[in-house]
Amino acid sequence: MTLEWSRSALPADLDDAVLAGRVAVRGEVVPVIVRGGVVHSAFDAASTSADLFDLDDPASAAGDAICDVDALGAEGSGAEVEFRSPIDLQCVKAAGVTFAVSAIERVIEERARGDSSAAAALRGELEAKVGGGIRSVKPGSEEAARLKTALIEAGLWSQYLEVAIGPDAEVFTKAPILSTIGWGGEIGIRSDSHWNNPEPEVVIIVDSRGRPVGATLGNDVNLRDFEGRSALLLGKAKDNNASCSLGPFVRLFGHGFTMDDVRAAELDLVIEGTDGYRLDGHSSMREISRDPEDLVRQTLSEHQYPDGFALFLGTLFAPVQDRDEPGRGFTHKVGDVVTIRSDALGTLSNTVVTSKDAAPWTYGVRALMRDLAARRTTVLA
């Protein structure tokens, strides 16, 4: 299903925002800067988005105008200028269990062993016993350590509670470089998963020097049955073909947009199925347990990222609304349209397919290097 693009999917204050990303112009992918609703090539200054974000002032890389934002289309739409994921060579990292609600849901998955029918009975019990404590403590604090001791003594401890309130955040690799999906693309769910959901998140873009340079929206698709059976299945639960989307663009910091705007971001989620089903959800960054800058710091601890990285910050959203059978909660169906909206960052929309049926990931680092070596000085000539 090809989604219809509209400039209303960009930040509400588009005229004041400076955006960065990637588009395909007649098949040639170029980094771009968006100012005042006009898409400008940045290829003369930066051959990749990783290069673009490494500039001291990425906004200054705006070159020749390519088109107005109204002329953009989803990948495969046939538009002359098509969206691509706004990142390329950056590592894609994700922080998990950064909200109290998500911590409780991960414990439910663990105790239910990935069986969605057992979730409802566990939810009320766990919320009553641990929910208030998790919400009230700062991760890594002495109070959190005392809560951990109490929960262990009560037989309620979990590896998920460790990363929810302990000193160390969960940070994992979500997807290989060049594998992420942009606005309007098909997002993949494993064909053998029967309990899964989208995860609407703010994503911080960090350059090779460790500087946060901007933020975008992301969908960190989650397979609750796989991870619930064993946390050691996290790789299968998180990293599959087309299982990670970003976009539509990265909003750059320093142009009326700051990390405080990320801390205050409100995300709305709508899932619309071909069966007439609709789910509305919400995630508020004000309720995150760990500060975004601390998550960036922990990602950088004893590690280097010479091409920068994208960091998913986690989500408050945990769907418990039944879709089919009472007590079985929510799970995706093929054809679902997932729309994530933030006034400051815009709208990210994708259509759900199975990872087997999504377009195969064939464009990797070697292909990019060959293309860059063969290209002319500018794609606009």
TrEMBL record:
Listed name of the protein: Fumarylacetoacetate hydrolase
Family statement: Belongs to the FAH family.
Keywords: Hydrolase, Metal-binding
SUPFAM superfamilies linked: FAH
Highest taxon above the source species: Bacteria
GO biological process: small molecule metabolic process
Entry keyword Metal-binding: yes
Domain Fumarylacetoacetase-like C-terminal: 179-353
A single GO molecular function term of this UniProt record: metal ion binding
